[in-house]
Specification:
The chain has about 170 residues and is mostly helical. The chain has one domain. It has helices at about 1-10, 15-40, 50-65, 75-95, 95-115, 120-130, 135-140, 140-170. The longest helix is centred in the last third of the chain and has 31 residues, at about 140-170. The model has no long low-confidence stretch (mean pLDDT about 90).
Length: about 170
């Protein structure tokens, strides 16, 4: 039973709770900033609300796992934008939503692999484009620019600033 637990249970290294709490505050500020920018730019949060889930997942990666290859700015921005583009293509040209959703994830993973921009939330961005219906369909390819590109770029810049500041805060202790 112990062997099974060692395979499926939590990683034995104890997490640094202080680091995770700081990361949570960084993510809070970044997602708040993204929401505020989208509100100012569009006058409404409706078009960007479906993007909350993928950006939340990206925030976990860039704030909690900044050394991961998945957190590299290229991966976050290009992975999310490429996934948005294929998601919009699938939503526009494939009428069966189930097929469009499956092909969007397939194309997102393939596109991220080819562009060396693997970022798991990109799969959610592609699904968001397919499953969100009229608000995203009305935006069309602009969805890849705003909210996806601008939100991804804002998230990356906020994470870079946060980790720079956090380094100073930790050294000051």
């Amino acid at each position: 039973m112990r062997k099974i637990w060692n395979v499926i249970g939590p990683h034995p290294a104890s997490p640094n709770h202080r680091e995770h709490v700081l990361a949570a505050f960084g993510a809070l500020a970044a997602i708040g900033l993204i929401a505020g920018l989208n509100l100012v730019m569009t006058g409404s949060l409706l078009a960007s609300l479906p993007l909350v889930a993928p950006m939340g997942a990206s925030a976990v990666i860039v704030f909690c796992l900044p050394q991961s290859p998945l957190a590299r700015p290229w991966n976050v921005v290009i992975g999310n934008v490429a996934s948005a583009l294929v998601g919009v293509i699938c939503a526009r040209f494939i009428p069966q939503i189930e097929i469009a959703a499956a092909l969007a994830v397939f194309a997102a993973i393939s596109g991220m692999a080819l562009s060396r921009s693997l970022h798991p939330p990109g799969g959610a961005v592609a699904l968001t484009a397919v499953l969100s219906g009229a608000p995203i369909k009305d935006l069309g390819f602009a969805f890849a620019f705003n909210p996806v590109f601008l939100s991804s770029l804002t998230l990356v810049l906020a994470a870079i600033g946060f980790h720079s500041l956090k380094g100073r805060l930790v050294k000051a202790d």
